[in-house]
Each structure stands twice: as structure tokens, then as C-alpha cells.
Amino acid sequence: MDPEADARALVSDRFPAARAAFLGGGVLSARRTPTSDLDIVVLIDGPPAPYRESLRWRGWPVELFVQQPGTIAAWFAKDVARRRPTLARMCAEGVTLLDADGAGATVRDQARAVLAAGPPALEPAELDRRRYSLTDLLDDLAGSTDPGETAVISWHVITVSAELALVLAGAWLGGGKWLLRELRATDPRLADDLIAARDDPARLAGLADGVLARAGGRLWAGYRQGGQL
Fold it and tell me: Could you check whether the bond before residue 50 is cis, i.e. omega within 30 degrees of 0?
């Protein structure tokens, strides 16, 4: 199976009038696994884009991200707002499958600019929300006597601790495996320690408190979030 050739064939078959297309680089890297999919960004003129679609092609699971040249910047901005530059990474770091008229080069430059600018500044309200969330989880972890609940809480502590460490470092976030990849790139020792402590609640709590210390410590009593319940 040749991911690049198969991705080109899919674009040619399904989008004969496409202006540009990119294949996300994950499937072309050493991280490729037997279940890796083809993440393909396609630029077309007009509706039905923008949309996302999952399908199978030549034995591959495929995720299509279909955009218009005039809409993709807004989707870059949505990803930046949630600190996960998924679409920009595919366009900036992936392989160009097609660039019929220069639109692909323009989009790649836009994507690279997004990554170079980095995530938005951490606002005090977001910092307090993240401190509160982790503090609340640690209270639940300390009081848990059910092994199953302890396991679930522990994984949430790992996730929220990793996200807090990343936003404090001004780094991007990620979902699932990408959260660990981002943390390994930013703070490899913390990444290793959190995973090693996943079955040791006391050690895990100590690590989470270490992250909280960077943010100003635990926050629970007195926390107030306006406008939301």
C-alpha cells in the first residue's frame, strides 16, 4: 500500500476539478501503524464545501477535510481558538498532492504562518478554569475508594495536567494520542512521569500539584465563573 499514490488516486477520482490537495504527514512518518488513516485536505470551488467525511478507499480508512480557498482561513482560526491546529498542520507539514493554480501554495503559506504564530495568549479566566478543574479532580482522586472510579479519575488527571502544562508553556494542545505527542515535545520528563504514575494515585497527585504550582497552586474555594453553570 502506497499512501501517497492512493491519496492522489482518490483526489483524482472524487475531485477531478480540485484546485489543491494535501496529505497529512502522519501516515508517511515512522509513527504509521496498521490502523493509520489518510488525512486529506481538498480545496474545491463552492458548495458543498466546507465539510468533513469519513470513508474507506483501497483498504485505507480516510478522513476528508474539504474546503474552499475562501473558507479555509476561518477554519484555521477555529482550530487556533481551541489550541489544536489540526488543519493547519496537515497543510503546512503534509505532502502536496495537487496544486492546479497556486492555491495550494497560498494555503500552505497561510498554514505555516498559523503554526509560526503559535496558540493564543493564556487569559486569566482560562487559567483559573483549568486550575479549578484539576483541583476538583484531585479532590475526587483523594476521596475515591472504588478502583474503577480511581482509574477513570486518574486518566482525567493526566489529561488535565498535561493540558495545563502545555498552555502554561505556550504550546499547542492535542486530542488523544496527539496530547501525549505535544507534551513529549514540550516537557518529555513530565510526559514520562505522568504515564508512569497512572496506576499510583499518590504519585500522580504529586505530579499534578507540581503542574498546579507553576500556575499559582490549587484553586477551588472562591472560584467563580460568570455567565455559565
Answer: yes
Alpha-carbon torsion angle 30, 35, 39, 40, nearest 10: 110
Q: Where are the domains of the chain?
A: 3-117, 124-215
Q: Long-range contact list for 174-181, CB < 8 A, 24+ apart?
A: 174/84, 175/84, 178/84
DSSP string, 122-136: --HHHHHHHHHHHHH
Written as nine digits, the cell of 107 is 494555503
Establish how many alpha carbons lie within 13 A of residue 27's alpha carbon, considering only the half-sphere containing its beta carbon: 23
State pLDDT tens for residues 104-132: 999 999 999 999 999 999 999 999 999 99
pLDDT cut 70: percent of the chain above it: 97
Query: 3-117 is classed in which CATH architecture?
Result: 2-Layer Sandwich (3.30)
SS (H, E, C) 162-178: HHHHHHHCCCCCCCCHH
